[in-house]
DNA sequence: CTGTGGGCAACGTGCCGACAA
DNA sequence: TTGTCGGCACGTTGCCCACAG
């Protein structure tokens, strides 16, 4: 077993992972997508899957599994958070025996919590860290304003239980909260640059915790490719899943929320709700949640422009990213061109702005692309 | 293909890899050992193979392959050298068609070359780098001794073609060669500490090259385990080899000379010479080459104490590390307890010091462990 | 011949309020 | 409210030689 590493503080892990990330409950049923896992490997190695990967004809595009264990970890070098999940494929008959009680663990951000994106001044060697007023008042212990200037020593634990000590002072004209002594060693130790974020939490016992989120644009851990060829990694992912499916035995999956393009272990209930109760059709309008540069959530609107296999030769009929989509705002072009059904929230099409002729078309059989002329005319009309 | 990275300078690569490392020639026939490859993964991840790995009954413990390509690389973060080999399993009948012309590429260290282990003074922030006199005279361009003091600017390329600039000066009482300006940025950029080594080469065109060798004791790249479970990595290695063997198709192997406990791609001619022309038996005396702390070669003497499978359940009859050995010098205990036949040089047993009764024992059938009492008495007698 | 340490100058780090966005 | 800057003190870096192993 690889259980010799201790799990890290769950609240801090989720704060570092960001508001969009939730993990399925231990014991519940989930759907595991080898394709998604492979995409995470591709994102980590910067190598796409090429033609050398053998087919695993007995490996389905999705495996219903029981989630036996979730361990939360953080990379020792980079502090990147990741989750180690123990999965076990379940047989068809077992699937109906027990349905999971809920959809996901609490992914709510802690209450006494703040997250600030670092400025050039925060990360320069010239000075310290400027703490937003409200943040300092919410999560730091109150200062003694009788002292001149008011100051105290802060101690905060990171994901590895390393304690960082900062001098917290309230000074300047106008007055502001600053972290001075101790700040620069933290910045250089964690190799923070302007654009990265720092977050502080006050937990139940009043202890301070702190974590970091690197800027979305920054390359996360570029897997040192010196150990294993990316081919072998992709094969390893598929062969491990195929072996587990064939023998109904447990296997290990590492999920990197901030590297992986999408979650690939989905609560079964969420999956079923999306697949069985959503009438998806070309032209359907939907919303989808993304994390902004400022680490907040934002919904973007889009339209389904096609339904079909992402990789028809290897994974025919897979539900993984089988929806082609377009986005209303063409400006920020970092949004995916393909999504999966469970990632989106359908929006009841406002009949007012779309002629009934298009909106009421009979649903096309899934997996088949129809003539897109109608759709194009509709979209043009919408502009 | 993963050929988008450029190969690095071969001479410099071999200098960094060390004198013990040689690579098979491109085009030649080699023997590939999945077990050895797996051991490299274990060394990189610090995770031993556990029981969760499926068996690949169709995968032999050794594959005869043609070596189609060798690309020399270096890790961008750590400068660790590694080789990417393209292998293709060959059929039984093909094996005899062409025998490789030679045993290995030139692994001789370059002529105009020196390697110095860094002292505390070399790596401290207090000063520069003290260049051994002979080394400076052999590889650096000659100084103009009319100048007072004699000094010049040195430019040297590393494995990534990054140019480092140093001020080379000859001063002090007594006079000595020093690198001053530019040295400390190099030390901190490469994260060198006392005990690591730096090497300089003057190539054919008079250009200076430089590289590093980290101290043997220092942990090399600890694979950030956040991407792939070590189980999946081991499975990936085995499944990739099994697939290639089944389809006679090419596959990629990454060899890390300084991380891997042993080479696992061996020239076929070397393998055959060792296996067919060596009468191995318990009690046999041999020598084996190791790299010392000072980056030089040294031979150690040992005795074969047993012959048998390293992993009888998974790899029965494998020649990989099937010799159990003891070493004459018990002091330095970092030498392996098991070796493979092609790693050692048999020494004709001096009959003078061992009673003929032991030395002339009939050879035991390989793979079977005999009664060790005779051997033990012999070894005791030798002390 | 070369590793370490004292002396000393130059430079960078880091704390302060001023100012403005 | 908070990001950046000039001012300034102090600690570190880095070049020099002396000395000794």
Topology:
Two copies of one chain form a homodimer.
Chain A: H1 10-17, E1 29-32, H2 34-45, E2 63-74, E3 81-89, E4 113-117, H3 120-123, E5 129-131, H4 133-139, E6 151-157, E7 163-171, E8 176-179, H5 183-189, E9 197-202, E10 208-213, H6 230-247, E11 251-255, E12 265-267, H7 268-277, E13 285-291, E14 297-307, E15 323-327, E16 338-339, E17 345-346, H8 356-359, H9 373-382
Parallel strand pairs in A: 6-10
Antiparallel strand pairs in A: 1-2, 1-12, 2-3, 3-11, 4-9, 5-8, 6-7, 7-8, 9-10, 13-14, 13-17, 14-15, 15-16
Helix pairs in contact in A: 2-6
The first copy, chain A, binds a DNA duplex (21 and 21 nucleotides) through helix 3.
- In which order are the strands of the major sheet of chain A placed? 4-9-10-6-7-8-5
Using a beta-carbon cutoff below 8 angstroms, give the protein chain pair with the largest interface and the number of residues from each chain: A-B, 48 and 48 residues
The number of distinct helices of chain A, counting runs of at least 4 residues, comes to 9
Oligomeric state as shown: homodimer
- Approximate strand percentage of chain A: 25-35%
- Unreliable residue stretches of chain A: 351-383
Distance between the termini of chain A: 56 Å
Order of helices and strands of chain A, N to C?
HEHEEEHEHEEEHEEHEEHEEEEEHH
- Indicate the overall shape of chain A: elongated
Secondary-structure-based class of chain A equals alpha+beta
What is the gyration radius of chain A calculated from CA atoms?
24 Å
Work out the helicity level of chain A: 10-25%
Average residue-wise pLDDT of chain A: 84
- Give a short account of the largest sheet of chain A: 7 strands, mixed
Could you give the count of β-strands of chain A? 17
Subcellular location (chains A, B): Nucleus
Subunit structure (chains A, B): Homodimers and heterodimers.
Domain TF-B3 (chains A, B): 114-216
Family (chains A, B): Belongs to the ARF family.
């Amino acid at each position: 077993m690889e259980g010799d590493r201790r799990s890290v503080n769950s609240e801090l892990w989720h704060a570092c992972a960001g508001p969009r990330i939730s993990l399925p409950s231990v014991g519940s049923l989930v759907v595991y997508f080898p394709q998604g896992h492979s995409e995470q490997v591709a994102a980590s190695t910067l190598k796409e899957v090429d033609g050398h990967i053998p087919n695993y004809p007995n490996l389905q595009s999705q495996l219903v599994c029981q989630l036996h264990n979730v361990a939360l970890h953080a990379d020792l070098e980079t502090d990147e958070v990741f989750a180690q999940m123990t999965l076990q494929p379940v047989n068809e008959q077992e699937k109906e025996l027990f349905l999971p009680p809920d959809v996901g663990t609490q992914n709510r951000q802690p209450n006494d919590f703040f997250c600030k994106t670092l400025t050039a001044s925060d990360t320069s060697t010239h000075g310290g860290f400027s703490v937003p007023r409200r943040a300092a008042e919410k999560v730091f212990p109150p200062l003694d304003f009788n002292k001149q200037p008011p100051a105290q020593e802060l101690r905060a634990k990171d994901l590895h239980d390393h304690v960082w000590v900062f001098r917290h002072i309230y000074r300047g004209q106008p007055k502001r909260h600053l972290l001075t002594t101790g700040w620069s060693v933290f910045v250089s130790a964690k190799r923070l640059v302007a654009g990265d974020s720092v977050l502080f939490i006050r937990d139940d016992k009043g202890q301070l915790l702190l974590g970091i989120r690197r800027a979305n644009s920054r390359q996360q851990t570029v897997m040192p490719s010196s150990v294993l060829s990316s081919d072998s990694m992709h094969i390893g992912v598929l062969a491990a899943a195929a072996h587990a499916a064939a023998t109904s035995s447990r296997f290990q999956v590492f999920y990197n929320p901030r590297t992986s393009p999408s979650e690939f272990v989905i609560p079964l209930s969420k999956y079923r709700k999306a697949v069985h109760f959503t009438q998806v059709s070309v032209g359907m309008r939907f919303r989808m949640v993304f994390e902004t540069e400022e680490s907040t959530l934002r919904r973007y609107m889009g339209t389904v422009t096609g339904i079909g296999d992402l990789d028809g030769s290897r994974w025919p009929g897979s539900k993984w990213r089988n929806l082609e989509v377009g986005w209303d705002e063409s400006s920020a072009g970092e949004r995916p061109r393909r999504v999966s059904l469970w990632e989106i929230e359908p929006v009841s099409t406002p009949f007012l702005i779309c002629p009934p002729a298009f909106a009421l078309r009979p649903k096309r059989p899934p997996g088949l692309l129809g003539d897109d002329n109608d759709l194009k005319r509709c979209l043009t009309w919408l502009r």
